[in-house]
Design a protein that fits this description.
Layout lengths: L1 E3 L1 H14 L5 E9 L3 E9 L7 E5 L2 E5 L4 H4 L2 E8 L2 E7 L3 E4 L5 E4 L13
Parallel strand pairs: 1-6, 2-5
Antiparallel strand pairs: 2-3, 3-9, 4-5, 6-7, 8-9
C-alpha cells in the first residue's frame, strides 16, 4: 500500500522520539486544495477514527483515513538530503499531474478542487 524508505523511517522515528508521547503515530492523507487539486497531509496523531486504515512498516504505525486511501495506493515516502537541508519526498503512481512544489497533484479520474489562489 504505502512504502516508506529506510531513511524516511529513521527520520520519522527521530521526530516521534522528540515528541515524547508513546501513543503518537504517523497519519498520511489527502485533502482537496493546492494548485493541482489535491494536497498531501503528513503528521503525527494520537486519535484513530472509524474508517481509518492501519498500516505498519519499518516499525512505524501508519494510519490513513478511508477517503484518502484510494489516492495513496503505491505511494512512496522518502527522505532526501541536499545542500539546502533535507526533506520528505512523495512519489505517487496515481498522480497524473503534479505541481512544481511536489505537494499537490491530481489523478486521471479525479481532478480534486484546486485552491482559488492556485497555491500549494
Amino acid at each position: 500500500m504505502i512504502t516508506i524508505s529506510e531513511l524516511a523511517s529513521e527520520k520519522i522515528k527521530e521526530m516521534l522520539e522528540q515528541e515524547e508521547s508513546p501513543d503518537l503515530f504517523l497519519r498520511v492523507g489527502v485533502k482537496e486544495g493546492g494548485c493541482s487539486g489535491f494536497s498531501y497531509g503528513m503528521g503525527f496523531d494520537d486519535v484513530q477514527n472509524e474508517g481509518d486504515q492501519l498500516l505498519s512498516q519499518e516499525g512505524l504505525k501508519i494510519v490513513v483515513d478511508g477517503d484518502s486511501i484510494k489516492y495513496l495506493h503505491g505511494l512512496v515516502i522518502d527522505y532526501k538530503e541536499s545542500a539546502m537541508g533535507g526533506g520528505f519526498t512523495i512519489e505517487n503512481p496515481n498522480a497524473s499531474a503534479t505541481c512544481g512544489c511536489g505537494s499537490s497533484f491530481r489523478t486521471a479520474v479525479d481532478a480534486g478542487k484546486p485552491s482559488e489562489a492556485g497555491e500549494c
